From TrEMBL:
GO-annotated molecular function: 3'-5'-RNA exonuclease activity; tRNA binding; tRNA nucleotidyltransferase activity
Gene3D superfamilies cross-referenced by the UniProt entry: GHMP Kinase, N-terminal domain
List of residues binding phosphate: R85, G123, T124, R125
Keywords assigned by UniProt, alphabetized: Nucleotidyltransferase, RNA-binding, rRNA processing, Transferase, tRNA processing, tRNA-binding
SUPFAM superfamilies xrefs: Ribonuclease PH domain 2-like, Ribosomal protein S5 domain 2-like
Gene it is expressed from: rph
Enzyme class: transferase
Organism whose genome encodes this protein: Desulfobulbus oligotrophicus
The protein, known as: Ribonuclease PH
Function: Phosphorolytic 3'-5' exoribonuclease that plays an important role in tRNA 3'-end maturation. Removes nucleotide residues following the 3'-CCA terminus of tRNAs; can also add nucleotides to the ends of RNA molecules by using nucleoside diphosphates as substrates, but this may not be physiologically important. Probably plays a role in initiation of 16S rRNA degradation (leading to ribosome degradation) during starvation.
């Protein structure tokens, strides 16, 4: 039995709070079950050296977990150094969120996304992408209202959700107890018009058949539609 008596295609409860950090240009606290991620956006009027003079913007992301986000306290990476996992997740978030933007319309600005995991119960990278995208939209809307942008440089909504195979059964939106025992673990990043942006799939114990991958992809597409419904709410 899954947590909350969820069916195989059931998402955990999702809630959203905007403006949690008033000093940020955009901020969102996204809760998916017991995974809680605070995503904030800072707009900088500069770009990395390799983009100077090219008339286009950039987006970059940082990701981290608070020490007590997991069952046992983790060391702050400012003290212990950034792990390979953190570096990989930061790059994934950045790649995914750049897909939602027309960087030429953004102009020579950088959107810096901070994703801080307050509580971790599986799917933190997916929650960071989903929450980060909504925080980016909030920041862009503010820039339009303030006259910094003539139009929204937004191409498509972006969201991400996990899926996996546990005990031979494809499941959507794994929590930690499921993820830690999964036969197959996958993360699906998608656009609001039904296209895939990035798919990460790993066999944890043995190779798996393509039909299981397709089953996970179908579940992820269904879950994505539930997440894109968040875009219809008010900030």
């Amino acid at each position: 039995m899954r947590s909350g008596n969820r069916p195989a295609d059931g998402m955990r409860p999702v809630s959203l709070e905007y403006g949690v950090q008033p000093h940020a240009d955009g901020s969102v606290l996204l809760r998916i079950g017991n995974t809680h991620v605070l995503c904030s956006v800072t707009v900088e009027d500069k770009v990395p050296a390799f983009l100077r003079g090219k008339g286009q913007g950039w987006l970059t992301a940082e990701y981290g977990m608070l020490p007590c986000a997991t069952h046992s306290r983790g060391r702050r990476e400012a003290v212990s150094g950034m792990s390979g996992r953190t570096y990989e997740i930061q790059r994934l978030i950045g790649r995914s969120l750049r897909m939602m933007l027309d960087l030429q319309v953004l102009g020579e600005r950088t959107l810096r996304i901070d994703c801080d995991v307050l509580n971790a119960d599986g799917g933190t990278r997916c929650a960071s992408i989903t929450g980060g995208a909504l925080a980016v939209r909030m920041a862009l809307r503010r820039m339009v209202v303030q006259g910094q942008l003539a139009s929204m440089p937004l191409l498509v909504p972006v969201a991400a959700v996990s899926a996996g195979v546990v005990g031979g059964r494809p499941l959507l939106d794994l929590d930690y107890s499921e993820d830690s025992t999964a036969d197959v673990d996958a993360n699906f990043v998608m656009s609001g018009d039904g296209r895939w942006i990035e798919v990460q799939t790993t066999a944890e114990g043995a190779p798996f058949h393509p039909d299981l991958f397709m089953a996970m992809a179908r579940l992820a597409a269904e879950g994505g539609q539930q997440l894109f419904a968040l875009w219809e709410g008010e900030e």
